[in-house]
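Aldehyde dehydrogenase family protein
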Amino acid sequence: MWKADQETVIVEAFINGHHVPSRSQSAKENPADPAEIVGYFPVTTKEQAVEAIEAAAEAFKIWKKTPIDERIARMRKAIEKIRAAENEIVHLLSREHGKPLYDAHGEIYVSLMWMEFACNEAASVLQEEVQEHDHGKTILSYDPMGVVAAISPWNYPIALSTIKIAPALLAGNTIVLKPSPFAPLAAAKVAELIASEFPAGVINVVHGDADVGVELTRNPLVAKIAFTGGTATAKHIIKAASETIKDMTLELGGNDAAIFLDSFDVQDERAMRRIVISNFLTTGQICMIAKRVYVHRSIYDAFVEKYIEAANRWIRIGDPFDANTTVGPVNNLKQKNYVQGLIEDARQRGAKVIPLGQILDQQRFEQGYYLQPTLVLDCDYHDPIVVEEQFGPTVPILPFDDVEQVIHLHNESIYGLTSSVWGQEEEAILVARQLEAGTTMINTAAVQGLDVRFPFGGFKQSGIGREYGAEGIRTYTEQHVINVPKTLDLPYIPE
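Predicted structure tokens:
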């Protein structure tokens, strides 16, 4: 096992059970200290991507016939390997991503929770159904699709890879995974740990540039695309996949709103801590994080005061390996510049920008991709920092006057991934029923309200399809209906 907190890690493409060298490699820096190279990952060629797809297609011929009990047993062994290597994985993830150690452990926790759920439920969820009825007999089976191209993002690289790998393989498919170049190392290592428990070709890992992504989305041997990432990239994927009409599961951007009703108790310190965490966990780089906050005008001033107090208590910006750190750097320079641009735009428009939290190490802060978390007040409902997904450590808080207004503000967004409503439970549920979102949480938000037993996905431009839950397993299958009619002659067809 690699020593991820000490060594420079090198990963290669993994095709048909073997590491495949590449002609060139890219360096992955430590976002907390960009002068430190954490490791290197390959620039996979288009030809190698084709090789991986063909290996997966060949392996599928055998793997699809493997009994479900064996698939589950292999996945359980893979889970134990990940659990045994958790500390090494966490240290590598923290170094390449910038997550504080507690957050990196949390990602492994969510990953294993989902993989175990999928193992526990796969046999019953994929069980064929046989119905005897007046017209005869009908058999409904859930058949594997074939080769799955899985493209994962950098913000939760392990969790958002395993969310695809586990159900795809349990359903009898094979897979080609492409991790993000902004967090490629830990995801590749975890995928290889899983692959070690499966036949060659069942799991393949490639890296590389846009031409590799295009091949994964266009190649006719690929039956399904599972993508988590930005809406703009998804539009290109949809166009490429349209040539061969591929099945797709797309979990995309979100501009998730948190709505605080006048019944919310601003003196509830634990609730205030939950909303702060839901804004700034993983430095605000989570698709389902609360990115805009609407507060009823009657409690607005008190809310802002208590929010700042809670944020200043919880937010400690520093080295991800410092146990006191709760917020690390932004993952990459491009994202840092984008978020910084939104904050400066808001300031130029007249908004009040309030820095939050404590910087633990000023020298480290200045040399890394750090941004001090900020609260943005007095902005317009339609300013870019409100209507665009920031994906970083800043959040606007805006007042609203009545429920109808805030429902409109929520629903006019092009996104609809998650939302949250805070206040008296029955009233909050009534509001939640009127929101256009895949998931709405009551009196909590973000991963604090995530339950892998239930489907997750978005409305509108936040995605297509669902992950997690039974739907997250069946989405990697085709429903196959076999009809055995009792009466073969139809009364309305003449002899």
